[in-house]
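Ligand: nicotinamide-adenine-dinucleotide. Inputs:
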Amino acid sequence: MASPVKVCVTGAAGQIGYSLVYMIGSGAVFGPNTPVSLHLLDIPPMMGALEGVCMEIADCALPCVRDVVPTADPAVAFNDIDAAFLVGAMPRKEGMERKDLLAANVKIFKVQGEALDKYAKKSVKVLVVGNPANTNALICSQYAPTIPKENFSAMTRLDQNRAQAQIAARLGVPVAEVKNCIIWGNHSSTQFPDVRHATVNGKPVYEAVNDDAWLMGDFISTVQKRGGAVIAARKLSSAMSAAKAACDHMSSWWNGTPDGQFVSMGVFSDGSYDTAPGVMFSFPVHIKDRKWSIVQGLPIDDFAKGKLEATGKELCEERDDAMSVCAAAQ
Ligand SMILES: NC(=O)c1ccc[n+]([C@@H]2O[C@H](COP(=O)([O-])OP(=O)(O)OC[C@H]3O[C@@H](n4cnc5c(N)ncnc54)[C@H](O)[C@@H]3O)[C@@H](O)[C@H]2O)c1
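Predicted complex:
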């Protein structure tokens, strides 16, 4: 039997964590024959709830789960890990400004970056889910200087899955027939869901849908606002779909993307597509041997250019705000 993949989930007692630990334990990410060791981190007041999650993992009798380590100590949670799902974050409270939320979360991801740097394997793959995901991932990497920056990414896969599902519903086709939807930029309402390069059964989506006004209007705003629509209906934010997307993201990173297909991930910009170098920008990427590369050469029309600029501008502002929070906390 292979030695287990050591996987950390932070915020493991929360909503997303509840679905995510089951999916990882079921073999959905690292394979049905790969044992996993689950390191579950949450904050001290949540240790009771986390204990309950551990009981349920045991009661699932999952063959892949070798052992489970519940803890409130990042040194234990990140010890020698191969993969990290950083879900735990401060939720937005009533009356809280976006800037206050950013400040609270940036501090969490600074501390976790430092702990990853100290305790995790240098090959660790870090996926940041907790919001603001792109900027949290940037800060986390900044404070983990001995881990390659390519090992940090932010989740926009839920937005990609939402875009794919909207197109499939519109055309009345199974969701798997829709490929290569792209999310550009920030995981926020400025993101640009783009199906200009997407296909359905090999045919361009723009041709199959044959309604440019919808694709350039309501389709984009539906995907951008889908998180809010789920909150309005459920009174809680997306959790099952967020956990599924986190598994999809890590599975693509671990196992690679099929030839001719790409997925969207928030990764360090190298300036591709005229974006600001150094921000965590969501791009279409190919993945091979656990290394992503930005898909190059896609034609960008004026409509897309404007959208990329707007979301890139927001990411630069978030980065500047986050850096000043970190500098003030030194
Ligand atoms: N990127 C995306 O697509 C996406 C989608 C959905 C949700 N999210 C974000 O994911 C995060 C989690 O969502 P949720 O619904 O599971 O929230 P939740 O409030 O149910 O759970 C969050 C958990 O994180 C824990 N936590 C807080 N600070 C922590 C710390 N410093 N270390 C470890 N754990 C800590 C909390 O105690 C809680 O158990 C939120 O920031 C949410 O906005 C992102």
